[in-house]
Amino acid sequence: MRKSTLVKTLLGVTLSFWWVVLPMSADILIGTNGDRFTGKVLEETAGSVVFDSELGGKLTIPRTRIREIQRAQPPITGDRLLPTNSTPAVPMLAPSNPPSTNLAWLPPAIGYDKEDWIQLKSGEWLRGRLYYIQQRKVQFDSDELDDFSLDLNDVRQVYPANPLFTKFDGRDQIYGTVVVSNDVVTVSGPEQVSLPRDQLTGITPGGKREFDFWSGNLSVGLSLQSGNTRQMTLATSAELARRTPATSLQLDYLANFSEAEGVQSANNQRVNGLYDVRLNRHWFLRPASLEYYRDQLANIAHKGTAAVGLGYYIFDRQGLEWAVAGGPGYQRTYFETVEPGQSDSTSTAAAVLQTNFKADLTRRLKFIETINLTLTSEEAGLYSHHAVSTLEFEIKRHLDLNVSFVWDYLQNPQTESSGAEPLRSDFRLNAGVGVKF
């Protein structure tokens, strides 16, 4: 009996200890804009604070952008404790309550500063702009952390400043003021709708400004090419996307051009367009997939491919996304030159398969692999693919460094009028600086 009582007592003391200590174990940093970070103060100087955030990692924040630090233990400057009689560059407000993550706390500016707010499960609050919630991802532009993506499961609350378009499984999209709180999504419009968060398909900005639906990326750089051509070329790529809760439209452009001693040695362009409609969390319909391609040195004056298809997300979670899609299509090709007696164009039915893989290697480094496969008649080349492997490094807000390896392949290239047959493969290594908006 005494042993049982002793065990219960020890268990109660242990639970009480962890109940008190765990919330106290984290420092809380509150920015002048209302951002609230949970983590650890690593170092302090007269002008800045180095803070290890559970969300953003190691951050160096100027004191002029800090309103308050709620400490779990005495602050540290370099290798020593900060003296209690020292005065920081910006006075820190004394915490009114013991330090804790305080998940029930709301930034007082919510609803008044015309900014979007999100809270993470760690208790951290971020202020900025919500781009969209789609494919179980939250894309957010934070004042402190810049653009970043989070898994929806890691987000506790979302308070957008403006009305948004919201889509739930099996329902038409709704326009109104949205609040995501814990496991419930509430939309206040002509009528109020509150549904479980696991039924949410997507949330995107909208309303009066069409621009809010769009995002893009432009990259310019040099290319080292081998295959049909071997020299330096100018490479340009661009991406433009329009997203709503249930649809996405994406346009991609890739071009290479060069001249050697006044003679054109490379001139190829490719334009891809995709339009997807989300059916549920995994399946999507692709009513339109269009591609235009021209490459004089590969003896292709113009080539157009149109297809429809059905797609599926194999992986769709934080830092890892893999989607595949495929379906029937039609292709028509015009050649630059052909041998005597041969037709200068061909048209054929086609089968198109597309795959897109994205993985976050680190917080700033992303790997992207895109492959488009096409099966056609033998006269049109029989088999071709366009594969792009990209490493994308975020230099700073809205500015990226992109390194891409491009492999274009055509199994049966059309013989030119001179009797020369273009090589099957073209390889390009592109490096450029990209700007996002």
Question: Quick gist of this model?
Answer:
This protein has one helix spanning 2-24, and strands at 27-31, 36-44, 48-53, 57-62, 66-70, 76-77, 80-81, 116-120, 125-134, 137-142, 146-151, 155-159, 164-168, 174-181, 184-188, 192-196, 200-205, 214-226, 232-243, 247-260, 263-278, 283-295, 300-317, 320-335, 345-360, 365-375, 383-396, 399-410, 425-436. By secondary structure, the protein is mostly beta strands.
Q: How would you describe this structure in keywords?
A:
single chain, 437 residues, mainly beta, SH3 type barrels, Porin
Classified by CATH, the class of the largest domain is Mainly Beta
Biggest sheet features = 12 strands, antiparallel, barrel
- The strands making up the biggest β-sheet line up spatially as 18-19-20-21-22-23-24-25-26-27-28-29
- Classified in CATH, the superfamily of the largest domain is monomeric porin ompg
CATH architecture level-2 label of the largest domain: Beta Barrel
**Uncertain runs:** 1-24, 75-101
| Coarse shape | elongated
In angstroms, what separates the terminal alpha carbons?
69 Å
Number of domains: 3
The number of distinct helices, counting runs of at least 4 residues, comes to 1
Beta percentage is: over 45%
- Rounded mean pLDDT is 81
Question: Structural class of the helix and strand makeup?
Answer: mainly beta
Look up the CATH topology of the largest domain: Porin
Indicate the radius of gyration in whole angstroms.
28 Å
* Helix/strand order, N-terminal first: HEEEEEEEEEEEEEEEEEEEEEEEEEEEEE
* Number of E strands: 29
Helical content band: under 10%
